[in-house]
Amino acid sequence: MTRVGKIARLPREIREQLNHRLQDGELGKRLVDWLNALPEVKAVLVGEFNSRAITEQNLSEWKTGGYRDWEKHQERRVLVRQLAEDAEDLEASNKNGEVSRHLSVVLAADLAQATREALAQTTNVKERLECVGQAVGKFTQLRREESNAERVRLTRERWQAEQNEAGAKDRTNHVLFPIYAAVIHKSFMGLMADSSPESQAGTVQVLERLLEKRKSRQSAASPPSDEKSSTQFKPIQGKSNHVRAVDQTESDPIQPNPTKNSGTAPFPVEPSPAARS
Hints:
Layout: H1 12-23, H2 28-37, H3 39-48, H4 56-64, H5 66-93, H6 98-120, H7 125-193, H8 197-221, E1 234-235, E2 243-244, H9 273-276
Antiparallel strand pairs: 1-2
């Protein structure tokens, strides 16, 4: 409910102070004098109420309206705070679902006692069978709920362990990645500086192949898509079980070796003992 009285139009900070002073039992005349002396209150009264001052009647109307709303709101805040504190205490006491298991034991004992008393009150075979059947159904339902609760607990613990492990790996990679990058960069720059242009070209080609293999592994690790691969193998007609590859136009073109006929291998090769002899 939106209120439009003089006090309701005051800034929230002033209304909060007023409500706390009313809660403390301060006299109305003193509160009215205090309000009318505030510069913020004077500005509101001049702008919206033709400079008419706040009276004790205005304060009385506020006490039965806006102040009561504020008290109810404070009560709700206290209730929510108490519920949160009680929930924390119960959660701390309910380690590993102990409350649920204890309650299950109590319910099972009560069910057994009620079944025994019901069976003791009748000798009719049909009635006894019906009583036992109902007891078995209730007990089965109780056990099912226990099993579901245990499954949820184990799933939650497994998920938490996986999250902790993933977080530890991320922190380790975050620390070690700059070191790995610096070592690889230094090694690569040293290798490129101490080799011939042909060897440098071979080194770049090896790095490109490593990158392609890494991309292939990442593609294989990704979830399979619904689209069919463009590279297919078709069986040769006849009884042979051999397969033929796709045409050259369907696959990547074969790149010529840039070091072929250059007279120098991309990496120096140590001759074998037979060749030296």
